[in-house]
């Protein structure tokens, strides 16, 4: 399956992330690494998915944060960066990772994109074909704190407390839980059996979830 994907090599992806961290250091980098680890672990148990490609997609899904401390425009910045580098699959995931229900209004954060960029995203979402990798990164984004993995519902509440809720919030939760069910059917067990540290992170034994630049 990887033959059909246009992904950077692991070394290239790590170099992109290191450069981005130097431009805009923050907990988003550790969050990205954990999203990548989760995607790799889950994809490794799914027939037909490439765990290395999943890792790279997770590593790069928030790469738009290289442009600085931004809100929703990190997705268009990430898409533009990876398209310019010649990686359309990874670029697509920069855009799709925040849109489980394909509604432009479901994304959290400051609406700091231009009207043209918002229209571009809206049109893109209407046409984009979501692959299992898009859904896998949507899932892993929802369980990856900078310190590690946590119960999805904890992250839902964390985000809602930081940003408030939106008209699409419950639909977004349902869609993300449905993705979890889809992957659990594929792997034959709870994702929480595969991912390390869920109990520690979920119950606040080792983690702070207060950063506004994560996700
Ligand atoms: Fe993220």
Indicate the topology:
Blueprint: H1 10-23, H2 28-43, H3 51-60, H4 73-85, H5 88-96, H6 115-127, H7 132-141, E1 144-145, E2 148-149, H8 152-163, H9 169-187, H10 191-194, H11 198-202
Antiparallel strand pairs: 1-2
Helix pairs in contact: 1-3, 2-3, 2-7, 4-5, 7-9
What does this structure look like?
The chain is mainly alpha-helical and 215 residues long. It has a single domain (2-106, 113-202), classed as Hypothetical protein af1432 (Orthogonal Bundle), CATH 1.10.3210. It contains 11 helices and 2 strands. It has helices spanning 10-23, 28-43, 51-60, 73-85, 88-96, 115-127, 132-141, 152-163, 169-187, 191-194, 198-202, and strands at residues 144-145, 148-149. It has a two-stranded antiparallel sheet with strand order 1-2. A hairpin with a 2-residue loop joins strand 1 (144-145) and strand 2 (148-149). Helix 1 (10-23) packs parallel to helix 3 (51-60). The longest helix has 19 residues, at 169-187. The two termini are 28 Å apart. The model has no long low-confidence stretch (mean pLDDT 93). Fe (ii) ion binds next to helix 2.
């Amino acid at each position: 399956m990887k033959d059909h994907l246009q992904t950077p090599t692991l070394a290239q992806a790590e170099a992109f992330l290191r450069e981005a961290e130097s431009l805009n250091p923050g907990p988003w980098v550790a969050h990205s690494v954990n999203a990548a680890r989760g995607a790799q672990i889950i994809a490794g148990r799914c027939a037909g998915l490439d765990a290395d490609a999943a890792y790279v997609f997770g590593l790069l899904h928030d790469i738009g944060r290289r442009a600085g401390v931004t809100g929703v425009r990190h997705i268009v910045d990430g898409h533009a960066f990876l398209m310019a580098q010649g990686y359309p699959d990874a670029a697509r995931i920069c855009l799709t990772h925040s849109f489980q229900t394909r509604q432009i209004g479901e994304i959290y954060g400051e609406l700091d994109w231009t009207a043209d960029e918002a229209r571009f995203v809206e049109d893109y979402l209407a046409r984009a074909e979501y692959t299992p990798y898009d859904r896998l990164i949507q899932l892993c984004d929802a369980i990856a704190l900078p310190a590690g993995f946590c119960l999805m519902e904890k992250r839902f509440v964390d985000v809602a407390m930081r940003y408030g809720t939106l008209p699409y919030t419950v639909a977004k939760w349902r869609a993300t839980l449905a993705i979890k069910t889809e992957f659990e059917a594929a792997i034959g067990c709870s994702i929480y059996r595969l991912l390390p540290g869920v109990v520690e992170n979920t119950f606040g034994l080792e983690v702070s979830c207060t950063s506004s630049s994560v996700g």
